[in-house]
What does this fold into?
Amino acid sequence: MSGQRLQGDGVPGGSPAVNEIDRRPNVRRLVDLSRQAVSYGVELRTSRGTSGLWERLYCFNRHLDRSCGNLPTLSDEPGEAFVAPLLEQMGPDWDWTQRTDPQWIFFSQPRRCKAAHSARRRYGRYKLYISPAAGAFRHAVVATLSASGDCSALKFARTHGGTLRPDKIVIYTDSLAHTRRVAARVLSTVGEIRAQGVPFTAELGGDGLISWAMDPASTELRRYLSWRVWISHMLVRCIDAAPAEADPDVQVDAVLSTLATRYGVVSGAWTLEAVRRKGF
It folds into this structure.
């Protein structure tokens, strides 16, 4: 794994726990990116109010289409032209789940689904984001598939527009320990490529290339569908509660403080406190 080191315990070389802040300058990219997103939200509150703000936070760091004219694109059709070569490289246990979803292409391993479902009910609905910059999407998809042999399911963007979003490749994992193991394999397989980065997620390595989150599973929170939808809504509540007359940096600090005290989001790590994950 030349030039890249995974954050989190349980991998060679030793490192801090995943929800601790690593002070090395090249591994805080998502922390800085997320703060920029909150600052953007604070500015929008001042100029436009909070109506529709959660969607803008959710889409933060999406590539502008005009800046990616040379990006290899997928068909707007179901994606057979892109998927067919992948099927030849994958093991026999992977199935292309031919859903009619307009945004995503899904792969699954049916033999692992029952055990994975049981683990996710017990440990939480963990997921791993792979976020390559423009031009590295195809390579990252192939590397992700080859490194995900013990995973039950994954998805990646179906269309050109989908490849512009930061969370363009997602692996569903069974626990936090499993998430870290898969992240280490992906980092080793993908090599050194530029990252786009998914705001409001916990960085695991690759200068923002790989990060994780846990989707809501409780009946109360299921309506938010995903971690990023939930955190975007909670950020809007915190932004709305911040002192509007204060300096912008002070407002951002107030938002992050409220997010930690009211919702249990660990400051500087973008994960929930361990005690809060059980009921999330």
